[in-house]
Amino acid sequence: MSYPENVLLHIDGKWRPSASGKTIPVINPANEGILGHVAHADVADLDEALAAVGKGFAIWSKTAAFDRYKLMRNAADLVRQRANEIARIMTAEQGKALVEAQMETLSAADLIDWFAEEGRRTYGRSIPARAANIGQVSYKEPIGPVAAFTPWNFPIGQVVRKLSAALASGCSIIVKAAEDTPGSPAELIRAFVDAGIPAGVINLVYGNPAQISGHLVPHQTVRTISFTGSTAVGKQLAALCGQHMKRSTMELGGHAPVIVLKDAPVQQAAELMARSKYRNAGQVCVSPTRFLIEEDIYDEFVDRFSSVAKTIKVGDGLVEGTVMGPVVNERRLQSVSTLVQEAVQSGAKLVTGGKRIGNSGYFYEPTVLSNAPVSARIMNDEPFGPVALMMPVSGLDAALDEANRLDYGLGAFGFTRSAESAAKMSRNIRSGMLSINHFGLALPEVPFGGINDSGYGTEGGADALEAYLNTKFVTHMQIE
Ligand code: NAD
């Protein structure tokens, strides 16, 4: 499968261009060439999508959970069968190494399976009443049509969490996927269409993000919003949701701290974290970023981490052997370069990297900075790129203070052999997720989400369905 010349909208069961015929070019971040074009929806297309998603909800919410489960499992199988072709599309548009794109596509199939099964267990409750002739029951009902806004860093991974949980709960959905990476989410949705999802249940649009959210969020048809992206945009959308009394799930930025204590297996921790840092060129919301390392092992950790960073093969993700591809677009490249330059000017030491590679494609060196002052912008704003920040700390208390200094609270990591230190980290870290001595985040069955400026709600585990369900209480007194 080569890159599609035209990525189309999917509205009311049909693949089609926008009514206006407008398109947006899709750029290959590895060479800046045009891969194809994506349809740009305008208000007329959005109104059709709204009518379709309402109709889709009427059908899907009345479809038995067992039938929804069977259809979703079939879609998951199609995703698995097509994974190699889909992954090539993803790498071409997003840049990540092909092996990462394959893993993302295959894990999407596992996630669909998991939510399909979980949708059969959206149990209500029977509540003991205060009189013998009264029955009290709470039901879980699908909330209604969903509008989902997803970013480009995991073009399928971000869509599939929202799509699967919504469908498993009986909701229909309009997905606005990222214009930078439209081709692979379209293939994900094609698998559901080919598996037989009724028209209107899944709709896919692209266009001007602010125009689309400005039209969909206030619309009466849409009952909940799920957004993944930056904290700044998340706050705007959350405010809009508040104004229109819409529920929402917000999966926003992070600045993950990594606490490494002197009793940790230093070499293994450094290798694991270096490989995790440069995955997807650091464009991961739970990417390990602020390394808070106990002083006694600081040099050893930084040396090992940097030596791994130097061996990472950077290049076109479609070329065999590439470990790290380019960042997604020119804006990202500029943003990472500026943050690194400012940090160096403010006194940080560049241990390795720190430059753009070549002048075609958005490649940036795997970078390690040490001793950046906490006032440097990079220590406060999410770098969202291949940059690790090393900082010595006197012990666990100092590490926890620094870890909790920011308003972000998404992912966090810790390395220690001490059960006592691990317990102290668990109790005191302010984040939605903490992974101790391994990278254990983002499996389908575990919670995934943040607190404070990193947003609210969870997109993993059984609780993820709650975002798409209403609780209805019915009390019934029997008349003699
Ligand atoms: P951004 O917030 O501008 O865009 C992120 C996504 O949100 C994009 O897909 C974009 O199309 C969409 N978006 C933007 N404005 C919107 C609006 N008004 N309504 C609806 N959708 C809107 O960020 P960016 O410049 O693409 O990426 C930079 C920052 O975004 C990163 O530094 C990072 O903090 C954050 N980000 C986070 C994640 C994540 O997984 N949490 C993913 C991508 C980006």
TrEMBL record:
Root EC class: oxidoreductase
A GO biological process held by the record: gamma-aminobutyric acid catabolic process
EC number(s) stated in the UniProt entry for this protein: 1.2.1.24, 1.2.1.26
Gene Ontology molecular functions: 2,5-dioxovalerate dehydrogenase (NADP+) activity; succinate-semialdehyde dehydrogenase (NAD+) activity
UniProt keywords, alphabetically: Oxidoreductase
Domain Aldehyde dehydrogenase: 15-474
The keyword DNA repair is annotated on this UniProt entry: no
Keyword Oxidoreductase: yes
Classification via Gene3D superfamilies: Aldehyde Dehydrogenase, Chain A, domain 1 (3.40.605.10), Aldehyde Dehydrogenase, Chain A, domain 2 (3.40.309.10)
UniProt feature coiled coil, ranges: none
Secretion signal, residue range per the UniProt entry: none
InterPro entries attached to this UniProt entry: Ald_DH/histidinol_DH, Ald_DH_C, Ald_DH_N, Aldehyde_DH_dom, Aldehyde_DH_Superfamily
Family (UniProt): Belongs to the aldehyde dehydrogenase family.
Protein name: Alpha-ketoglutaric semialdehyde dehydrogenase
Biological source species: Mesorhizobium plurifarium
Lineage: Bacteria, Pseudomonadati, Pseudomonadota, Alphaproteobacteria, Hyphomicrobiales
